[in-house]
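Aim 2 progress update. The chain analyzed this quarter is reproduced below.
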Amino acid sequence: MRLVPAILTGSIDDYRHTLALTESFTDYAQVDFMDGLFVPSVSVPSSEVAGIRTSLILEAHLMVRDPISYLMPLGGSEFIKAFFHFEAVSNHLQVINRIKDLQMKVGLAVNPGTGIDEFSGLLEDLDSVLFLTVDPGFYGSPFQPAVLEKFKRLRRAYPEIEAGIDGGVKLGNLNAVIDAGPDFICVGSAIFHASDPEHAFEQFQARIKAAGKAAV
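Predicted structure tokens:
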């Protein structure tokens, strides 16, 4: 079970700072992109991010109405995977094929209200599914525990698909998230809004490792 810190910044200077900070405690992170259209918030654009070199391996979470336009600058960079939102587009296979053309892994993110049956026909074309446990668009949105039951249903029906959970994860609800059985857990504000982000990351990491040992 991988812990993935999720970076969300509104300016390129903040992005550079957060990237350097993240490099100090992990080798893999997610970068959240928001366009002010699919979600109300706006983040630093992918065109600015793409040229910044880092030792991190990155994945993109595209909370945007036009994921292809955000994807194009990321090809050939440290980004190895891109999640686009099921609810953002109707041409899902076109976006999937464009991600594959860029030699990136394909991820599908789904909002709390989206049912498994709505996207199950796409699973054979995906590398990962990301279940949001918040309504997307803001750091610190309230956690929706009902999504964990939906996640468990996917696990039972499609045990082979890599799947993760993202949104509102805190130390207080982490055990419930772990119990759902995700392959990876994305954590944003509980790490980066902490007084010591590295220590917060280590706390989450220690809890996840302890749960893994207990399950053996």
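The chain has one domain: 2-215. The radius of gyration is 16 Å. These observations will guide the mutagenesis experiments scheduled for the next reporting period.
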